[in-house]
């Protein structure tokens, strides 16, 4: 009986070892698995993978797209269980957590002596975003800077000049009022109170404030600058220049703009192609109106490697194929997003010749990096809940900001102890 049990245990262990020794397809080829969430980039990703597979005929690459709402839960579960994709998209809010949990691999050893990849070729803000203790953990793929999209038809019908680089917050309020038509259910501006990257993070920094200080030890939410920001946003809603928070929760910002219910919307560059397809020649884009400081938030996506991948050299070759000049050129030509590769970002300008995409490249020169820390997701959960609660009338803005500040500082203090 003991021999039978021992044999079964050995058999199970053998099966497990085979299962963990590497992935292979039915035709005997090695398989690399890739995961991301936006199918709009599929043409560019497919082209890079096709090129990679030609150079590596013994490898098959399998790509899985998972909706963003499910992506992180699915990814964390699979990686934590010792499996998961070999290569996958990483974003700023989740980066520190994945690094400190040893779920993604340090890329520095692969960079050393590799003449085909140099960090200096990529926008510094995104390199910094995906670096931990001066080591790169995700290869920059594309960047998201923010601009002011507008519908020219609203301005033409009102006989108003289009937004330009001279605009300030005062212009949003003044012109937004003139463009708002309550009887038609249209608004002059959408103030993005339920989203941070395209919305209030920009205004906080334009007001001279900060979300988190440079050494990531202190919240900036309970400061005069942040209070000024949210008073401005609230005033836009009270004056009915912008849809209120409940309306923004019920209907996505993109739908407000593409259904021509709002004249202006601050949004990231990745939406340019979609907006142009819907609005055509009526689409315009200008720099974000300035506050006390002329800045905006920049974020970006990087390609990370599973720390437990069995084919790390092949995974690195695939990451290079996706993020190098050739890979980002394909993406740039589709108009999907601004490549993080600085040289290739210029190619993107020609992808939508009727849209002033230079606005987004100019924004990168004076942008502020997306605010993150080791436990970003925890304090952002508090932030989102409290801000939405305030704009839904459940508490005052000051009460919400004070609570965010208190709980965020407690989280940051815990980070310092880890």
TrEMBL record:
Keywords (A to Z) from UniProt: Signal, Transport
Pfam family, one: SBP_bac_1
InterPro entries according to UniProt: SBP
GO cellular component terms, A-Z: ATP-binding cassette (ABC) transporter complex, substrate-binding subunit-containing
GO MF annotation, one: maltose binding
GO biological process per UniProt: maltodextrin transmembrane transport; maltose transport
Signal peptide stretch: 1-19
Annotated family: Belongs to the bacterial solute-binding protein 1 family.
Full protein name: Sugar ABC transporter substrate-binding protein
């Amino acid at each position: 009986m003991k021999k039978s049990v021992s044999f079964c245990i050995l058999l199970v262990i053998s099966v497990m070892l085979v299962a963990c020794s590497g992935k292979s397809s039915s035709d005997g080829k090695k398989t690399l698995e890739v995961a991301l969430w936006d199918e709009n980039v599929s043409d560019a990703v497919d082209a890079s993978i096709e090129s990679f597979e030609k150079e590596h005929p013994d490898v098959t690459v399998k790509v899985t797209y998972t909706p963003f709402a499910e992506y992180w839960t699915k990814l964390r579960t699979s990686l934590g269980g010792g499996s998961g994709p070999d290569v996958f998209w990483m974003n700023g809010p989740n980066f520190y957590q994945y690094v400190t949990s040893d779920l993604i691999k340090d890329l520095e050893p692969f960079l050393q002596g590799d003449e085909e990849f140099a960090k200096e070729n990529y926008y510094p803000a995104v390199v910094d975003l995906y670096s931990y203790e001066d080591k790169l953990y995700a290869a920059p793929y594309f960047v998201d800077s923010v601009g002011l999209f507008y519908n020219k038809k609203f301005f033409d019908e009102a006989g108003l000049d289009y937004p330009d680089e001279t605009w300030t917050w005062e212009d949003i309020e003044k012109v937004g009022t003139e463009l708002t038509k309550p009887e038609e259910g249209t608004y002059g501006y959408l103030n993005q109170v339920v989203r941070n990257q395209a919305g209030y993070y920009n205004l906080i920094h334009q007001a001279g404030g900060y979300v988190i200080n440079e050494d990531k030890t202190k919240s900036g939410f309970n400061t005069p600058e942040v209070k000024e920001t949210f008073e401005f946003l609230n005033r836009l809603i009270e004056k009915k220049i912008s849809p209120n928070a409940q309306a923004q929760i019920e209907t996505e910002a993109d739908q407000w703009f593409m259904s021509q219910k709002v004249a202006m919307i601050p949004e990231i560059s990745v939406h340019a192609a979609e907006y142009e397809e819907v609005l055509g020649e009526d689409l315009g884009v200008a720099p974000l109106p300035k506050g006390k400081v002329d800045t905006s938030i920049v974020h970006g996506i990087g390609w990370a490697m599973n720390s437990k991948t069995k084919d790390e050299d092949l995974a690195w070759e695939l990451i290079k194929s996706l993020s190098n000049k050739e890979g980002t050129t394909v993406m740039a030509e589709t108009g999907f997003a601004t490549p993080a590769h600085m040289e290739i970002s210029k190619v993107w300008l020609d992808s939508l010749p009727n849209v002033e995409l230079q606005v987004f490249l100019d924004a990168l020169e004076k942008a502020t990096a997306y605010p993150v820390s080791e436990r970003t997701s925890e304090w952002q959960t508090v932030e989102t809940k409290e801000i939405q609660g305030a704009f839904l009338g459940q508490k005052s803005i000051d009460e919400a900001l004070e609570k965010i500040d208190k709980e965020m500082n407690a989280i940051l203090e815990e980070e310092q102890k880890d």
